[in-house]
Amino acid sequence: MARNKAIDRFRRARTLEVKKEVLEGLERLAPKSEELEDEAESEFPDDRLRLIFTCCHPALRPQARVALTLRTLGGLTTAEIADAFLVTEATMAQRIVRAKTKIRDAGIPYEVPSAEQLPERLPAVLATLYLIFNEGYFASRSDSLIRTELADEAIRLARVLIETLPREPEARALLALMLLQHSRREARLDEAGEMVLLEDQDRSLWDRAQIEEGLALVETLRGVIGPYSTQARIAAVHAVAERPEDTDWGRIALLYGQLRRIQPSPVIELNRAIAVAMELGPEAGLELIDAIDGLDRYAPFHVSRADLLQRLGRSEEAVEAYRRGLELSTNPVQRSFLERRIEELG
Question: pLDDT per residue over 141-193, tens digit each?
Fold first, then answer.
């Protein structure tokens, strides 16, 4: 009982901090009448989710509205947001400044959207929650690999989003994806705090309750084709494999092919190439990876390439690729893992 009261006090205090940050960072939230406040409270049972919808203003470009919301409400630094968008910190800082300048110069009113306005803001809100979770799942610049508080908060907000918009399948898909990914948390680090790859994880440590909830949500997505529903299906394939060798890599490769058509991205191309390598062999995967452009400053690109080179017995090239990945990695746990790999091949 006392613990629950303490949690409630913490959440109320955090909500006040968030509101203050929004007011100071964006300089204004449009004044609302008492009737609008009452309507907003009924539409949004959570203050932070309401503010995220408020910040995801359609007058801004999609990436700009997501970046600004992450900086103001998501708990991410400019450097972490830059990592998420695969750009430099200076570039992301300029984008955020430009977005704030446009808000000021164009006199864009920041007001709680009506129910009719929610669908046009939903994609940016989903992207915001997704990137908050991603930073929690694999912290780009933290001392630890996992930032549990960010991942847990993203999952909580996704639950509230489903309560607010129960008919939105991509919202259910996003929650399913988060739960299935987060279910592996206890297995991703060993007793020494070192990173453990998916294929080496002790799957008995996976959270079965989260997996069952995630799989049940995936079942509700039949006939739905979208970026989060496709990723949730990929996570589900991993979740049902009792052993690494039971993983249906052919289905994963097909799903990444579908995702590539929905949401073209070099990162998706990389993930598809890895799945192809697991199904057809490292040579097939390496051929696909070497054809990808735009990921030279993305550490996982070089690490994945190094792994395939190592499997092909091309150790010197593998070491060179691991070293490039190490140069680009900003997480100390990942850096320690790569240093060990280089030493083993050394």
Answer: 888 999 999 999 999 999 999 999 999 999 999 999 999 999 999 999 999 99
DSSP string for 224-265 = --SHHHHHHHHHHHHHH-SSGGG--HHHHHHHHHHHHHHS--
Q: Where are the alpha helices (DSSP H) in the chain?
A: 2-26, 34-43, 47-55, 62-72, 78-85, 89-106, 118-137, 148-164, 169-182, 208-219, 227-240, 249-262, 266-280, 282-289, 299-311, 315-328, 332-345
Q: Enter the tokens of residue 255.
A: 């799903």
CA distance 44 to 60: 22
Is 60 exceeded by the pLDDT of residue 34? Answer: no
pTM for the model stands at 0.86
Beta bridge partners of 195: 189
- Which one-letter DSSP state was computed for residue 199? G
How high is the pLDDT of residue 141?
87
- 179, 213 Cβ separation under 8 angstroms: yes
Q: Which residue has the tokens 């680090």?
A: 189
How far, in Å, CA of 195 to CA of 153, rounded? 23
Q: How many CA atoms, within 13 angstroms, populate the side-chain half-sphere of residue 93?
A: 5
Specify the pLDDT at position 2: 46
DSSP character string of 31-48 = ---HHHHHHHHHH-S-HH
Taking alpha carbons only, the member of 225, 228, 278 closest to residue 122 is 228
Q: Which two tokens stand for residue 120?
A: 């046009």
